[in-house]
Specification:
Layout lengths: L16 H7 L26 H8 L14 H14 L3 E5 L2 H12 L5 E5 L4 H13 L3 E5 L4 H6 L5 E7 L11 H10 L3 E5 L4 H4 L9 E5 L13 E5 L1 H14 L5 H12 L1 H20 L4 E5 L9 H7 L6 E6 L4 H10 L4 E2 L9 E3 L11 H6 L6 E5 L5 H12 L2
Parallel strand pairs: 2-3, 2-4, 4-5, 5-6, 10-11
Antiparallel strand pairs: 1-7, 6-7, 8-9, 9-12, 11-12
The structure holds pyridoxal-5'-phosphate (PLP).
The site of pyridoxal-5'-phosphate (PLP) has 13 residues, from α4.
Amino acid sequence: MIERPRLPEPDGRGLADSTLAVHAGEDRLKSGNAVTDAIFCAATYTFPDTQSAVDYVAQKLPREEYGRYGNPSERVTERKLAALEGGQSAIVYSTGMAAICSLLMAVLKAGDEVVLFDECYHRTRELCNKHFGKFGVVTHQAPACDYDRMEAAINENTRLLISESPTNPHLSVVDLERFAALGKKHRVDTMIDATLATPYNVKPLAYGVDYVVHSCTKYLSGHNDLLAGAIIASEEKLEPVRRLRGATGMCIGPQENYLLLRGVKTLELRMRRHNENGQAVAEFLQGHRRIEKVYYPGLASHRDHEVARRTMRGYGGLITFLIKDADWRQTADVVDAVRIPRIGPSLGGAESLIEQPMVMSYHDFSKEQLEAVGIRENMIRLSCGLENPEDLIADLEQALDR
Ligand SMILES: Cc1ncc(COP(=O)(O)O)c(C=O)c1O
């Protein structure tokens, strides 16, 4: 048996994020002596004899049994993400929504209630309001970052407080200390969707949040080439969630897992550039005569700038802005005139992406519904990729000046 030393501490405590991103969770010596982790395309795993199967079932052997319950390389990704978030454990999923859905399924039952900030990812809101509503779960919404309204909605049936931070597309930033304290005060678990931040920019568990979820489709994988999700929390909290994944089968494929693992290794480098690009482009937009408003937490004009400065290392690559005196068609003209960002949903990849939320994610909302969620016809969402910031700014300038 080859001895397989890991990092000095199993979770890499004390090491910087860039070192963790490259090494945490990995064996020093891997299959075939390769420097990279292997892709195991195995649906099932075999046993040399019946006693080994008996020992495994009695949890005496750390190994795999069947693909729906785990894959050796997936475990590496899980350990790496847990180390980066400063958490004990992580579970990887086929998509971000699979992660969120699994967590809700694992912790809620009929009669339970959740309270969420109304700027949560719109599919999370839909999942709670519409789909879990069918199974007897009651959802209350409070305006984003209105902690008093959130507290007022908590009662003896409340099981979970949910928010995204920063939110999408308004980039509101939750005061995680306050949010977690609210949960602790009322003995209610808290969940933060930190997709837009990544563990490079903020680590919600350090503020006392119970569950962090990610759409790894975005910055964590970083190349617009896969779908994946993750939940990070304590061992104890994740145990029932992990068992449920074995039953629902929302697991990631081996190829996607490999790409995710590879993407995470460059997280720090990529996030630095996304943060730089986001800040530079937001400052440019704020100074442009055709811009009515810019939503970016790195700007002093943003409502949550102080909270963001206190809790975040950088503010990411996502920027939302309003074109002055423009209807949806004139706004579309700006979107159509840019040459570098491509038109499409999603964010967090190497390629910049641009869209009008009203046209893309909220196309089936009525005028009243759009107003209620603060989506305007002159609103543009830009995910700054990894391109040169001066090129992005020059491109936006030519599109706005037409
Ligand atoms: C903040 C946020 N959470 C969750 C999701 C869902 O992730 P996925 O598309 O990987 O299911 C998204 C996707 O856009 C997102 O932006």
